[in-house]
Specification:
The protein is an alpha/beta fold. It contains nine helices and twelve strands.
Amino acid sequence: MRHERWLEDHSIFGFGWLPSAERYWRTVCANMAPQSARLDAMQCHPAPPLATIPQSAPAPFVPDSVLDRLAKASSGSLTTQLYIKGFRQPVLHGLTPLNKKTRAFAGRAYTMRFIPAREDIDVYGNLSTEPSADNLQWVGVEQIEPGHVLIIDSNKDGRAASMGNILIARIMMRGARAVVTDGTFRDGTELQSMDFPIWCTGVTATTRLSFHHVADLQVPIGCAGVAVYPGDVIHGDGDNITVIPAHLAQELAELSERRDDIEAYLALRVQAGEALWGLYPPSEATRSQYKQWVSNGRPTIRPAKPAGAG
């Protein structure tokens, strides 16, 4: 509009260049006007925000029958099969069992996510006896169903306990198969004597409220550097905790059963004094010998004495 007003004021002088200049500026102004109107409209009427946040589809449900088969698999076979499928690090490194006695398990992940505590929210008075947004940990415990493994993302921060004896006892009574954190637990003496798998990085008496706030339940988390999605299978044995994507659970059960069986056979042959070449990993000839051994009813393979033994 400023250009048009200038042309109206000055074109009366009749200079020869003004008509062409006038046509140019009128063309520019005409092209700019719709764009300016669009910009004004966008500023006055911004696009509305998304009504909802897109959500991923839930993981497929893994039945108890598959969980029971996976519980019998070794972590070595599971991690090898996962590696073959492209999963380089499915193990929660740095965690150890707190119990004096360990037993193998596999269960569906129920996830709990911590963020750093804040002084005006994480106070003792918020440990209410009724469901509360400021005390989601109690809510999570009471949502546990048979077949779950409660797995806690505590940001690898063990300065305060993820939970203690009473909550873990309640989880056990609700049918959970284990509880896992990449932090610490409290009440270690009591927990060590429980007949229930408990995995963590250590023990501290410091209350969770000092450093942790339960921000979310049943959302994707990271635990000990591994992604865990609700419904994934959490497997534990005497050595490791392994995360198995839910959609691979059935296949991994079958693959691991076959792998564990042939590796048990190979271990017998190594203990009988055979060299590794052609034996481990098994060659086609060795696989044929394994099948024949199974067909023959698994006859005894007697161990030999180690070299140098008397």
